[in-house]
Design brief:
By secondary structure, the protein is α/β, with parallel strands linked by helices. It is built from 8 helices and 17 strands.
Length: about 350
């Protein structure tokens, strides 16, 4: 895979903007190799001029079906080599640094080229003067915008690993990805690129749509998707699963949601057999769905007032799982768009 870092927008560090622009290079095929007798993963990676410390995890992920618990290589077995990432001058690149994710998560390793050419606009709901839905747990106040933002960052980081172009529309200058259960509520979010978020709902939504549509013009007929993330607020006794909205007249929006829905359902069946999944898909004429030019999905992640749904938000592993599963769905949707 080639990632042309000459096309990375030069961004003032203080603004913490996030943009990776994918090159127009054609995706490379994974190279199949066979180990020599007695050769281990580290030795084989070095033989193909891949630094083991940078490519070991990617190798495991690519070949997990052909590796046992001991991770020993089998003579005569074919294995896939990770694709070496290079800049415009042909120099290897293994990772990039994106301060918006915070010190712990700012270094992103580029894994593959599976989302090259795809453009995503991640829109965590509310923010600035509007915290959105609010709940309570363990004496703490839970704010919708903080949990939607954390999951949005995790999703954006995942997409970057696959060489996507990613814009985070609702942004916070200093939160980054957080691993705490209780995320501190604040009001310092702003809208891409650096605009204060108005309190008036219509003005706030128009601001985000205008930002997305202005960016979308740059990418012409490329695959583009807007992903808006929210947390619902209902009666405490009403728990909900993740559910999806699209514009009623958008066939591609409906197809996107069907793919996301089926992926979430599959993941629950795999990881929590017998739990069941009662999410839903429906068309609604919400402002963002009506006015954003890219194909859009509006996702409700749970009920901030229900203990079971709160666990989905409070447990950091659950927040990461949501981001991972949405990433899988978006990967499938992108692959489907090429058929």
């Amino acid at each position: 895979m080639k990632k042309d870092v000459s096309k990375i927008l030069m961004i003032p560090l203080l603004s913490l903007m996030l943009l990776i622009v994918a090159s127009n290079a054609t995706a490379q095929e994974y190279k199949k190799v066979t180990p020599e007798k007695g050769e281990g993963i580290f030795m084989m990676l070095r033989r193909y001029n891949l630094e083991p410390n940078d490519y070991f995890d990617a190798f495991i992920e690519l070949n997990k079906k052909n590796l046992g618990d001991d991770l020993l290589l089998k003579t005569g077995q074919n294995y896939l080599l990770p694709i070496q990432i290079e800049d415009a001058q042909g120099n290897p690149i293994e990772s990039g640094v994106f301060p918006i994710f915070g010190p712990k998560y700012e270094r992103v390793e580029f894994k593959d080229n599976d989302l090259q050419g795809a453009v995503f606009y991640i829109v965590p709901g509310h923010g600035g003067p509007d915290p959105g839905a609010m709940g309570r747990s363990g004496g703490h106040v839970l704010c919708e915008d903080e949990y939607a933002y954390d999951i949005g960052l995790r999703l954006a980081r995942n997409l970057l690993e696959h060489n996507a172009t990613v814009y985070i529309i609702t942004r916070d200058p200093d939160d980054g990805i957080r691993d705490e259960r209780y995320l501190k509520c604040d009001k310092d979010e702003y809208c891409w690129p650096d605009d204060a978020i108005p309190l008036n709902q219509t003005r706030r939504l128009k601001q985000r749509v205008d930002a997305i549509n202005a960016l979308a013009k740059k990418y012409g007929g490329q695959y583009q998707r807007t992903v808006e993330l929210h947390v619902d607020s209902r009666y405490e006794e009403h728990n909900v699963d993740i559910f999806f909205y699209h514009h009623p007249n958008s066939k591609r929006g409906e197809a996107l949601n069907n793919t996301l829905f089926s992926t979430i359902k599959e993941m629950y069946q795999r990881h929590q057999p017998g739990r069941g999944y009662k999410g839903s898909i429906s068309g609604r004429r919400l402002y963002m769905l009506r006015h954003a030019d890219p194909v859009s999905t509006y996702i409700e992640l749970g009920n901030i007032n229900h203990p079971r749904d709160q666990k989905r938000l409070l447990e950091v592993s659950n927040r990461q799982a949501i981001a991972n599963w949405l990433t899988l769905g978006l990967l499938k949707d992108y692959a489907n768009s090429k058929k």
